[in-house]
Amino acid sequence: MQIKEFIKSICVKQLDRVYEKQLAAKKTDYHSWVCEKEAKEPVFDVPQGEDFVVLCQKNGTLRKGALTLLSSAFDFVQQAQVLYGDEDFLDKDGRRKEPWYKPAWSPDTYLSQFYMGSVIAIRKSVWDRGIQGDGEWLGREKLAETIRDEKNGCNITCIPFEKCEEIKGIMLSMLEGVGGFEKNCHTICRYGEILFHVHDREVWQDYLKTSTERMCRKVGKSLVSVIIPSKDNPEVLKKCLDSLKGLEDIEILVVDNGSSPENRSKIEELLDGHRYLYYPMYFNFSEMCNLGVREAKGDFYLFLNDDIEVCGTTWLDKMKKKAIQDYVGAVGLKLYYPQSKKIQHAGITNLPVGPVHKLQFAEDAGSYYFDRNKETWNCLAVTGACLLIEAEKYKEVGGFKTNLQVAYNDVELGFALHEAGYQNVVILDEFAYHHESLSRGDDITKEKRERLLRERKTLYEMHPAWKGADPYYPEELSTDGLDSRIVPAYYSAGNEIQKGMLQSCSFGIQQLREDKCLMVNVEQSVPGRLRGYGVVLGDDNACYDRYLVLSVSLQDLSEAVVVKTERQYRQDLEENMADQKNVALCGFDVELSREEWNRLDTYYIGVIAVHRVSKLKLLNFSGWQLRGKE
After folding, report:
1. 102: Cβ–Cβ under 8 A, 6 or more apart, which residues?
2. Among 3.40.309.10, 3.40.50.2000, 3.90.550.60, 3.40.50.300, what is the CATH number of 224-466?
3. Hey, what CATH topology would domain 494-627 get?
4. Confidence at residue 181, expressed as pLDDT on a 0 to 100 scale
5. pLDDT tens, 270-283?
6. pTM
7. Which of 329, 373, 391, 455 could form a disulfide with 417 if both were Cys (CB 3.0 to 4.6 A apart)?
């Protein structure tokens, strides 16, 4: 080996060692993190509390102070009649692992799994009403214990259980008694703290496999209006229509916004007597759906993209069974990418970066975060690509809003239904294939990206309270970028937002090699905040410094500004790009001051990667543009 190459190899090994130390410092151990967090939590003085009953798993221990926390919660949240909380696993060495963070009250999730879990607190007055039909149940529990909480001035009755079958019946009675399966339920609340440590993971398996049946409103004779917006896609539409054959009590309405004469003729032939609404117009998904609604005669509306291929014969009955419940708004279905079991949609999650599809691109095998890919879950919104809703509920909230022409109209509908007191549902034990983007392509052009950003801005102007908020996705779960996994947020607790200072770019375009091997993804571009990653494919990423570059031109960097980025830990890159070397610290998260932000006009966003040994300089731009002064 030549001396120069030998010296380079030594330098690379040194950089790798530095990288390993930085990575170790960024990674966070849950036990240490949660113990430190709980030690810092303030203790509040509370007024005299009300007596309550706690149903508590035998196989584990209550967190220290859990009963006081619950007592305080009942005092502060007067409307709460039932409380449940989060839990984790305590191993034989006394170390805490695997936190289970729960969603807000989710009645349909509860019917699918006993997610409320190991600690459920019920006001004594509610408990006494609920057990009147089975008055001996409490008396039979030999291990029941009543504790006097002198601090809060209340009696707390602890009733241990082992299998949730033991309490499933009486819990259903309690939950129904406090309006848990009615609109606008605010009496059942999640207490967002770890309250219990299980000693055996089999406890959780018992919860996940326990479903609950309840008497509910039945679906009688009813008509479903299937509304399909479509233009110039007869071959795609045919696959969708063929998949609907054999379904009873449906009418099909295809809304066409201007197919060519040749394709119009083909579509008319395909429909074979079904209704064809031909309205030449600019593409507006919301308006096309509403045109279909005006002509529809059904008790339910089923909105389908023309690139949906439904599967099986039971999916529609399951959707109707949910949609007809008084408290349920929109109902969606699990969607796969074609010819695969790769998830495209399993409910919409609303993050600080905007609405996203959690679990997107995940292979639907095994379980993701306590069976989040299985059975039935409540969520804030479902995709309009396959959405069922009762006609009267759709009209009640004004349907799809036409000022959201392409994107986020389904999310807005979900927000509006939730604000009206309804629960939205996604059914995950049935599926359809979504041949996504066949109809109108991906949002990759400059114009489409700008339209997407405009419509996202409109969405949050219409519903400002929901910006970055989602009651079904606890804040203790990761909101990093567009990470589609569902993982605890403590993984990235070692990261800190970088306070960026813009500097003139010292690199000339002639010094740089524009190369797609530098993968650049900007996941968040909002006023004052730039977040994403830059990965050099096929090389050792520990050897590169990275600069975020903002340039008015893709060909000329003379007016560009840069920020040297600090390394951010990205566990998703570490997992998803395991074939690449040292990618875990390739993230960036830069916050600019208002003064810095106001310096910007419209810039392309890219990354410059400089190899610290070879001095190779790579450049690549993302597809995003930044509008600073807005």
Report:
1. 84, 85, 86, 115, 116, 117, 190, 474
2. 3.90.550.60
3. Immunoglobulin-like (2.60.40)
4. 97
5. 998 899 999 999 99
6. 0.91
7. 329
